[in-house]
Amino acid sequence: MTDIQSVKKKVISINKREYIIEAAIDLFTEKGLEKTKIADIVKQANIAQGTFYLYFPSKLSVMPAIAEVMVEKIHAELINSVNQEASFTEQIKQIVQTIFIFTKKYERIQALVYAGIASTEHLRNWESIYEPLYNWVDALLRKAAQQGSIEAINEESAKLLIGLIESSAEQAYLYDETDEKMAQNKQEAIIPFLLNALEANG
Question: What does the alpha-carbon distance between residue 193 and residue 1 come to, in Å, rounded to a whole number?
Fold first, then answer.
């Protein structure tokens, strides 16, 4: 097999896996986890059922891949939304706002992903799925610390920051009845809490 043929084969393989993930996201969102069958996924992805099992041994095993896609999406949203030249306080506001907007936009699929992963052995993969996002936030925090904008930071700070913001956003949109005023109140409450925890100076 030539190098070009090898690359083409790899691209086709990646595309088929992506088709499966995209089809699963659409169907899980539309029909729910229980009502979606593997047959539905392969039909929408336009692949043979045997092809599905080359990538995923079961329906639930697609969940970590979907989680990776969602983390990639929020990571990209944060990169686009957070102004690297803004004050640290403003950056925290932008991070909180972006995560709340994202959680509202994808509330149904995120709830399904959490439920799907929590019910399988894949829960232990959660931290590795989030690692790129944690690293990005960690770099932002360390830069702020070097500039003297914050005082309190350690190796767990990025995880705690993301976890707290996501938890608040999920309370607003995934667990409680959606109420924009309540969601806004949560956003406004969490910002000074985070700034105080990090001993922000501006």
Answer: 58
| Dist. CA 117–CA 120, nearest whole Å | 5
Q: What pTM does this model have?
A: 0.80
CATH class of the domain comprising 62-197: mainly alpha
pLDDT band at 121 (very low <50, low <70, confident <90, very high): low
Long-range contacts of residues 43-47, Cβ cutoff 8 Å, at least 24 apart: 45/16, 45/19, 45/20, 46/19, 47/16, 47/19, 47/20
Q: For 145-174, what is each residue's pLDDT tens digit?
A: 999 998 878 889 999 999 999 989 888 887
**The CATH number of domain 3-57 is 1.10.10.60:** yes
Residue owning tokens 């932008």: 94
What are the Cα distances from residue 24, in Å, to 12, 45, 50, 127, 169? Answer: 18, 8, 16, 22, 24
Q: Where are the domains of the chain?
A: 3-57, 62-197
